Write a sequence for this structure.
């Protein structure tokens, strides 16, 4: 498969390693990591840091250390089983939602744009959904009310920051406005995890 | 890794400890330390770059 060129920010990956990302962001991260050998390597390094911290002196404020939360409890371990799963959903999503890509019950939002929302645990903050863009169709220009992580599952999309293909992650915050455009030949299916709703512009 | 962590400035080590050991999300760290979220993230990023360089030396 094509090499993955866009990865989560190291701070996002650190939060994922520490088990402190919110449920939807953690879901998107686990999907990217299942498809990305480079990020699996980074995670192993971060786990070494976490392990070293558990054996280290208290922080300067003198607090007592408690164990790192197990990330595996959130959305499956980063086993890399998304890599060979070209036609279906990456492992973490398939396991947790029992969906195949061709069975997603799409809801049409606009011409060439479909969405399907995934259910989160009771009380979980944020949103997790698939967006499908038909070839050459674009989302309206929108901003964000918090962090947003997007993983491309099929096809590709572009916006002002570049081109994102299968496995790529776009990691943005509320300072970014964009207008993703589906690839002119393939369109795209993206998994989007957001801390809050998007804000339509114009 | 322990040495690299010990060598971090207190402000960077504190955010790393709060993130990894106390399991606080970034916004909770920002609240705890009365810092802007961006400052918490930049301290974490700097800290990880230093520790990662130490890990690379070990490999």
């Amino acid at each position: 498969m094509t090499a993955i060129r866009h990865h989560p920010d190291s701070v996002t990956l650190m939060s994922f390693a520490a088990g402190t990302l919110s449920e939807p962001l953690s879901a998107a991260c686990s999907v990217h990591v299942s498809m990305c050998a480079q990020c699996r390597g980074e995670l192993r390094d971060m786990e070494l840091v976490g392990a070293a911290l558990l054996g280290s002196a208290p922080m300067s404020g003198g607090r007592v250390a408690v164990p790192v939360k197990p990330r595996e409890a959130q959305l499956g371990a980063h086993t890399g089983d998304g890599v060979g799963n070209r036609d279906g959903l990456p492992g973490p999503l398939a396991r947790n939602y029992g969906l195949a890509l061709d069975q997603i019950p799409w809801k049409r939002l606009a011409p060439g744009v479909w969405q399907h929302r995934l259910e989160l645990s009771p009380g979980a903050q944020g949103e997790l959904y698939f967006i499908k863009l038909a070839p050459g169709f674009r989302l309206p220009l929108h901003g964000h009310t918090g962090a947003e992580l997007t993983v491309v599952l099929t096809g590709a999309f572009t916006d002002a920051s570049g081109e994102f293909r299968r496995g790529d992650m776009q990691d943005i915050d509320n300072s970014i406005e964009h207008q993703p455009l589906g690839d002119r030949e393939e369109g795209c299916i993206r998994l989007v995890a957001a801390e809050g709703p998007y804000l339509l512009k114009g | 890794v322990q040495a690299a962590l010990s060598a971090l400035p207190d402000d960077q080590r504190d955010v790393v400890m709060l993130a990894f050991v106390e399991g606080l999300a970034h916004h909770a760290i920002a609240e705890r330390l009365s810092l802007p979220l961006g400052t918490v993230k930049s301290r974490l990023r700097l800290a990880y770059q230093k520790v990662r360089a130490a890990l690379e030396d070990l490999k």
